[in-house]
Amino acid sequence: MPRSKMRSSGKPVAITLGEPAGIGPDLTLQAWFNRKRLGLPPFYVRGDLQLLSQRAEKLELPVHFESCSPEQASDRFSHALPVVQTGPSLTDTPGEEDPAAAASVIASIEACVKDVFDGFAIGIVTNPINKSALYKASFKHPGHTEFLGALAEENWPGQLSKPVMMIAGPDLMVVPVTIHVPLSAVPQQLTEDLIVETAKIVANDMTSRFGFKNPRLALCGLNPHAGENGALGTEDQDVIVPAVERLKAMGIAASGPHPADTMFHPEARLKYDCALGMYHDQVLVPAKTIGFDDSVNVTLGLPFIRTSPDHGTAYTLAGTGMARIDSFCAAIRMAHALAHPETL
Ligand SMILES: NC(=O)C1=CN([C@@H]2O[C@H](COP(=O)(O)OP(=O)(O)OC[C@H]3O[C@@H](n4cnc5c(N)ncnc54)[C@H](O)[C@@H]3O)[C@@H](O)[C@H]2O)C=CC1
Ligand SMILES: NCC(=O)COP(=O)(O)O
Fold first, then answer.
1. Where do the TM regions start and end (predicted)?
2. Which of 52, 124, 245, 269 has the fewest other C-beta atoms within 10 Å?
3. Neighbours of 209 (CB within 10 A)
4. CATH number for the domain including 187?
5. Mean pLDDT of 103-120
6. How confident is the model over 237-265, as pLDDT tens digits?
C-alpha cells in the first residue's frame, strides 16, 4: 500500500509483548523510532516499561515512553512509544529465557485481543513467541494461530470459522493445511474435509480481505510427484483429488494436486494466487526463501485482524541492533490496511 495513503491517526494497532528474550522488543523500539521515516500508523505495545527501557539502552535508542491506556495510545504515538503495562516488571536478559515471563507473554496476547473486542484497537500484531518456552509453562496451544482461534471463540462466540495460517508476501502467498503438526502425523490429519474447509476460508478471505475476484488456489500434492498415480503414496488420489473436485463444484478456482517441487519457480507462480501446502515446511520454506524480509504471517478465518512478522525470536540477535524490522513493519502496515480496505 502507498505509505502516503496510510492514516497517521485513528485507532491504533495493538502489539503483543512476545518472547522478552527474543527480538520482539528490538523490533517494537526500532519501528517506533523510525515511525515517521517509515510512515507507520499508530501502535502501542502491551508489555513492560522496565524491560523496554533496558532494551532501548542496550540498543542506544533514545526512545521516549509513555505509560497509558489503549484509548490514549494514538494521541501519544507521535511523541512517545505508548506502553500499556501488562504483567509485572521484567528484567531484560536478551537471549536468556526467564520462565517467569511466560505468564506475561500469554496475558499480553489475551489483552490485545480483548482490546480489539472492546473497540480500542483495529487489530493485533504479535511479536514472536518461543513456543517451547510457553509449552514448559503449560501453554496448551501449538502456536499463536491456534491460541487466537480459542480466544476468538471466547470473545466472539460462533463467529470463528477456523484459524488458518497464511504467509503473504508480494511474490507469493501460501497456506499450510496442517499447521504445527509433526510430519509423522500429517497423513492421518490430512482429510478431504480439512482441505475443503481450509480452502474455502482462504478463498473467502482472499476475496473479502485482499480484494481478489476469484482467487486461484493451487494445492500441492503430499507425496513426491503428487503420488505418481498412487505408486508413491495414495493420499494424493484418495484425499486431495476429491477435495479439489468438491472445491471446483463450489465455484472455487482450485487446482491440483500439483507436484510441489515445481510449484515455486517464477513461471509456475504466475499460475495461481495462493499455494496450499499439505504441511508447514512444504510452503513455508519457499515463502521464507523468496520473501523472508517482506512477508507477513496473517491469520485467516478469525473475526478480527491478526498479523505477525514471518520470523521467530532470533535469540542471537536480541539486543544487538542487527535484527531487520522489515517483516514486522510489513505486519503493522498490513494490519492497518486490512482495517482500512479503502486505502488498498
Ligand atoms: N510467530 C511466531 O511467534 C513465530 C515464532 N517462532 C519461534 O521462534 C523460535 C526460533 O525459531 P527459528 O526457527 O530459529 O526461527 P527464527 O526466525 O527465529 O530464526 C531463523 C534465522 O533467521 C534469522 N532471523 C530471524 N529474524 C530475523 C530478523 N528480523 N532479522 C535478521 N535475521 C533474522 C535468525 O537469526 C536465524 O538465523 C522458535 O521457538 C519458534 O517457535 C518461529 C516462527 C514464528
Ligand atoms: N513458522 C511460522 C509459525 O510457526 C508461526 O506460528 P504462529 O505462532 O503464528 O501460530
1. none
2. 245
3. 17
4. 3.40.718.10
5. 97
6. 999 999 999 999 999 999 999 999 999 99
Task: Take residue 224 and report the three cell numbers written for it.
Answer: 513426491
Nearest to 218 by CA among 181, 158, 264: 264
Report whether 225 belongs to an annotated binding site. yes
Same domain, 213 and 90: no
Coil, strand or helix at 12: coil
Ligand 2: nearest atom to the Cα of 179: 4
Pocket test for ligand 1, best of 313, 320, 322 (most atoms within 8 A of CB): 313
120-144 pLDDT, tens digit each: 999 999 999 999 999 998 899 999 9
| Residue whose CA is at the smallest distance from ligand 2 atom 6 | 143
Q: Which domain holds residue 195?
A: 161-301
- Provide the grid cell at 3: 505509505
For residues 196 and 167, membership in a common domain is answered with: yes
ipTM over 0.95: yes
Residue nearest to atom 2 of ligand 2 (CA): 310
| All cell numbers assigned to 26 | 528490538
Ligand index nearest the alpha carbon of residue 299: 2
